[in-house]
Amino acid sequence: MGIYLNSDDTDFRSAVKYSRIYVDKTELIRYTNSVLFGEQKYICVSRPRRFGKSMAANMLTAYYSRGCDSRGLFQGLKIATHPDFEKHLNQYNVIHLNMRDYLTESENMKQLIQFVEDDLLDELQQEFSDLRMPRRKTLVKVLEQAFVQYKIPFVFIIDEWDCIFRVHKSDAVSQKDYLDFLRNLLKDKSYIALAYMTGILPIKKYGEHSAINVFYEYSMTDASPIEEFTGFTEQEVRQLCEQYNMPFSETKKWYDGYCVDGVSIYNPKSVVEAMLRGKFSNYWTQTETYEALKIYIQSNEFGVQDVILKLLAGEKEKIDTTTFSNDMVTFATKDDVLTLLVHLGYLTYNAETKEIWIPNDEVMEQFHQYRKVMGWGSVAGNWETSVKSHYKPPYLVTNKSVAELIRTRDIKQTHLF
What we know:
This protein has 19 helices and 11 strands. It is an alpha/beta fold. It has 3 domains: 10-218, 3-Layer(aba) Sandwich (Rossmann fold), CATH 3.40.50; 230-277, no CATH class; 291-415, no CATH class. Strands 2-3-4-1-5 form a 5-stranded parallel β-sheet. Strands 6-8-7 form a 3-stranded antiparallel β-sheet. Helix 7 (109-127) runs parallel beside helix 8 (139-150).
């Protein structure tokens, strides 16, 4: 048992056994089991912060890792009823990495990659003491030798794989070096049974192709067929509301609204906080994504503010998500900026109608908080001017703030724009 190779089930056990609220999402394992060894074994899941990405990574580690016996932990959970549960339980060499940890420790991309290789080589030699080391002791060569010698495939679980692109937004050289490292480690390797990556952004595109284009992407714009694992479903939230005696209609108003391939998804972090605290509020705290929203809306380079005005009034907007480069600096149109806001969780997207909107009251409130912090006076002024051009008293209550007007629905929204 190691830190990165074949770690135990401690993290997932803490969530299942000691958390006050645990929602069973173990049937995701049914899907990952179905794609083991096949072309679809490369999975990249992107969704906003606090939407359970690390929880899923810990769950998969606990299930597949040979470093523990998790049979008792999974008993009573949904996956334990499936026929292939025992077949794959704790049968693989699992390498679980959180790339943010390495980003924090390293000074540059070359050092980050070296740290990853050193840590894994150390643990591989400890785990396989009689491993016949290849002459060239690179990480890939050692992994290949371990697979050939022991016939046990590897499962790679890489959490926050995209943090490099979010923190070092403009460092194209480091980004390319990082993608090349991942490609060399993962692409078309016989030692891999499953590669599962999580992040906020889908895989970075360079030109027409990604450097790791073998991955199948499941994102906030296209999560099928695992959309129900993006967050809490309506049925799951109803059960929590009954358990904690909280009104479902108000919970839906605050935290629902994420349309993921036709499935209504709730923000899991916020729902849990509301249930435990017994009140509705904005629990979806952000860090780096706050700066993203501030920059992209305030600049208004592509007329993004005008679209946000419509969305604040409850309108929807059609966009094209296909041109987005999956980074935080390459924008050719307003649609690219708005697509980023979908991936960050500030907007939601309907793949059938190609429309975006603000998903719920929690996010709506956050837009208004940012407007105040940023001194977004011109936007507020434009909004009120637009309203006044269509309405006269008593329909317009002039001493109310923009936020209050929207939230209380004192103005009919269908004729605002």
